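Ops channel
N.P.: pipeline sanity check, posting one input/output pair.
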């Protein structure tokens, strides 16, 4: 059974940091590209960052470049999103996404709220 379980969300003040984790199981994690998406209320889900299966290539949305870092640990079958210098506009539900060819899986999401 495929599972993607996000954790690490919460309430943080502007300028603060959070580290999201997504623990994967039930598929060959090391063969999948991994991504973080987010969806704010009333908005479409958007790509935040992704990382290739080998971990050597990453991409970021312009809105998070220089503030967020995606990484993965294939031995722990976990992908991370380090979020620094958080802004109120980063408030959203953050989702983990795994994809390889025609196979794709979503996590259930974790809420991140940036507010003073």
């Amino acid at each position: 059974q495929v599972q993607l379980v996000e954790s690490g969300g919460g309430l943080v003040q502007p300028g603060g940091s959070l580290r999201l984790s997504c623990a994967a199981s039930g598929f060959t994690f090391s063969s999948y590209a991994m991504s973080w998406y987010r969806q704010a209320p009333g908005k479409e889900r958007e790509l935040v960052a992704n990382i290739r299966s080998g971990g050597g290539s990453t991409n970021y949305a312009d809105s998070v470049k220089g503030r967020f870092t995606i990484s993965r640990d294939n031995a722990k079958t976990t992908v991370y999103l380090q979020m620094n210098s958080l802004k109120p506009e980063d408030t959203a539900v953050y989702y983990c996404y795994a994809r390889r060819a025609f196979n794709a899986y979503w996590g259930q999401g974790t809420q991140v709220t940036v507010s003073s």
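N.P.: looks fine end to end. The longest strand covers residues 92-100.
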